[in-house]
């Protein structure tokens, strides 16, 4: 496996839209037949996705401070309001102080339930950052296992059905 494949997998894992839900299937397809490369890429992708809260919380702090400034363009304020509203809507299923619920929220491999949204939910609810990071990272690990199993079995099934 080449280093570009690893780089793209890490970018996919860190990106807000795909996260490990996109990186793991990409890795399994890009490294077909290379089990060592797939495991190495999987570990790097999970690590990249686990780094998300360390970037998300400072970004949210800066956005929160900038949104309060009178000179800030209204477009930025509306974008931040939209993001905060998204976090508040997603937070309805996560009670204040419930880190297990936050972990389960991140672990479910559905759209808009990854580490970025989990960080936003924890920020909106004002949860303790250290505990939130642990819960989010545990959720990322669980989501990675779920996505890996589903993608591995799905690719194997497709290969069997279409004799690839």
Structural overview:
Keywords: Membrane, Transmembrane, Transmembrane helix. This is Small multi-drug export protein. It comes from Desulfurococcus mucosus (strain ATCC 35584 / DSM 2162 / JCM 9187 / O7/1). The protein has 164 residues and is an all-alpha fold. The protein has helices spanning 3-14, 19-30, 35-50, 52-67, 74-90, 99-107, 115-125, 129-162. Helix 1 (3-14) runs parallel beside helix 3 (35-50). The longest helix has 34 residues, at 129-162. 31% of the residues are buried. The model has no long low-confidence stretch (mean pLDDT 91).
The number of distinct helices, counting runs of at least 4 residues, comes to 8
* Main sheet characteristics: none
Encode the helix/strand succession as letters: HHHHHHHH
Number of domains: 1
Radius of gyration: 18 Å
Unreliable residue stretches: none
Quote the average pLDDT. 91
Task: Work out the helicity level.
Answer: over 70%
Strand content range: under 5%
Protein name: Small multi-drug export protein
InterPro entries: Sm_multidrug_ex
Pfam families: Sm_multidrug_ex (PF06695)
Transmembrane segments: 38-63, 99-126, 132-158
